[in-house]
Write a structure and sequence with these properties.
2 copies of one chain form a homodimer. Chain A is an alpha+beta fold. Chain A is 34% helix and 23% strand. Chain A binds a DNA duplex (30 and 30 nucleotides) through helix 5.
Chain lengths: 236, 236
DNA sequence: CGTGGGGTTGAATTGTGTCAATCAACGTGG
DNA sequence: CCACGTTGATTGACACAATTCAACCCCACG
């Protein structure tokens, strides 16, 4: 399931030692960056389970490259995807208890693994690190709360528009050039609290209106304004 | 809207100076407890807006007594309640930017207000405090993620059963004695991503099956096992 | 060149929302 | 102290958005 990649050069993605080297483009600032702890380099193949649901929380991870989903599975098969995570993101951060969500590789993934106790120790001795970590956690709370609004109050069409906007913001390096969605329609559906069919219909509807171009995984936003409108806007 | 309660003795609820005094029953452990920062005592009346949606994040709050809801309002009137908060809980914790959610008093509320910059400073000099704060934030992430599953994948009946279970766990000091829900049906509906009518129907259904007794705000769980079953259980 | 898994589309079904009426509780002022 | 208006809760009838069930397509892969 896991490939320990000790022998593999990951320096392409992030400085190993943690001192020199500019951060490569596309990798956002995050705690547990180069300068922090060493972290064990790892790889996980497509659909590999990185964290099992219910497992004791001992390790957390930072993504170097690739995409990860967090997943909660109900006994009758219903599934909720909690988040999609990309390079720079942390996960497995359920300090103390069990992992409430599983974490699975959406694509082949390069990771760094950290013992949670090591991270806590580091936080206890390095204020700057602790502050960055705290900021990151607070941001995560904001992201989750925002998603609550989507799941609780938005229509199918609005959810899909919001999703495309979110993914474009996170993945589209050169605005307008389009993105390749790494995840399946089923993943998207379970992230948005919909069915695969509804996601499809929503996408074809947007295509029909000329708002986006869709070809399997390839998405290009044609009319950003229209997409924004479909999002189900903010503030009273 | 606010009543500055400087002249008011809140020592009934929590030690002011922050050294002596046992924690009163019903107030769970949390950071920003007595021993931390002073914090300005405040009061807010029923339905008062404590934090405005979109306001610059400058202060955060700990609840001493009463109930608070966090709310996001969409321009067409749709509303999502992010969380219900009780004694010991913190809110307003959107460090750095704006408050994405408003915070409103569900009941009359006694609070302590803290400057976020003061809290950050304290965290930078007191590892123990920083750790407790971090643990609390992580727990909040867990709570939010759990709610994602409810909103994304549970049926109306399951949401209502989950809600009653949650509230009983948090409010019922003497198990089986029942609770008084401080919030309206509309609040419950907006928390669960439903309408008032659906919440009502769900409650009467549970009543009809003898699972709970409902009389306006008063709720008594009669058959905890049956309620647990209706919850839409965990783990695959 | 079959085979199978994801994706898309169509038709039927249903859970939940919408609209509307009634009821109960409460505060207010005559 | 009671009539009244107001607000929240409950119930019913109906509508509709999204799910379910089903068929089909397309491409990747053995």
């Amino acid at each position: 399931m896991f490939t320990d990649a000790t022998g593999l050069s990951t320096s392409r993605f992030l400085p190993l030692g943690g001192k020199a080297g500019a951060k490569p483009a596309g990798v956002p600032a995050s705690p547990l960056d180069g300068a922090s702890l060493p972290g064990a380099p790892m790889r996980a193949g497509r659909d590999a389970e990185i964290i099992a649901q219910g497992a004791r929380a001992e390790y957390c991870y930072r993504i170097v490259a690739g995409c990860v989903r967090t997943v909660k599975l109900l006994e009758d098969g219903r599934r909720q995807v909690g988040a999609f995570l990309f390079a720079g993101d942390l996960f497995g951060w359920d300090a103390g208890g069990e992992h409430a969500f599983a974490a699975e590789a959406v694509t082949d993934v390069t990771l760094r693994r950290f013992k949670i106790s090591d991270v806590e120790e580091r936080a206890a001795t390095d204020h700057t690190f602790a502050t960055r970590l705290r900021r990151y956690l607070i941001a995560q709370i904001g992201v989750a709360r925002n998603h609550l609004v989507l799941l609780g109050r938005k229509t199918a069409a609005e959810r899909i528009a919001s999703f495309l906007t979110e993914m474009t913001d996170r993945l589209d390096s050169r605005p307008g050039s389009g993105i390749d969605l790494p995840m399946s329609r089923a993943d998207i559906a379970d992230y948005l609290g919909l069915t695969v069919e509804t996601v499809c219909r929503g996408l074809t509807e947007l295509r029909r209106h000329g708002t986006v171009t869709v070809d399997r995984t390839r998405i290009v936003i044609r009319d950003r304004a229209a997409l924004g409108q479909s999002t189900g806007v903010r503030l009273h």
